[in-house]
Amino acid sequence: MRSTRIITAFIKNNNKILILKRSDKVRSMKGLWSGVSGIIENNEIPINRAKIEIFEEVGIRKSKINLVKSIEKIKIISPQYENHEWEVFPFLFETKESEIKLNWENSEHKWINVKELKNYETVPSLDKILFNLL
């Protein structure tokens, strides 16, 4: 089975969690809601990739985020690709920043209460990843 290592980072502001709607310009999971995500390149350290992706995707500098929690990677079978799994490295960060500057990878963002996540069509197992971080 082929495997892709990715990070998924949730950002918390007060009691809200940031979710992003993946744009139609990305390769996978178009139109689905997710946290900040990105492919881990080569031997890159996952938390470093998470901080890079947060800045690239939502414009929050690493000096403005604090790591709250990380957990062991979670393997998720890909419904989109045959014989493929995602190795997800999950992170939860906190920030006081509420202004978001999206790049091309996402078309919308929302600050939601955790209980609202069930109302959105998300990437596979997003709720499982989030609840393991809370």
Describe the secondary structure blueprint for this structure.
Elements: E1 2-13, E2 16-22, E3 33-34, E4 36-39, H1 46-58, E5 65-70, E6 74-77, E7 84-95, E8 106-112, H2 126-133
Description:
This protein is of the alpha+beta class and 134 residues long. It has a single domain, classed as Alpha-Beta Complex (Nucleoside Triphosphate Pyrophosphohydrolase), CATH 3.90.79.10. 16% of the residues lie in helices and 40% in strands. It is built from 2 helices and 8 strands. The chain has helices at residues 46-58, 126-133, and strands at 2-13, 16-22, 33-34, 36-39, 65-70, 74-77, 84-95, 106-112. Strands 1, 2, 3, 4, 5, 6, 7 and 8 form an 8-stranded mixed beta sheet that branches. The longest helix has 13 residues, at 46-58.
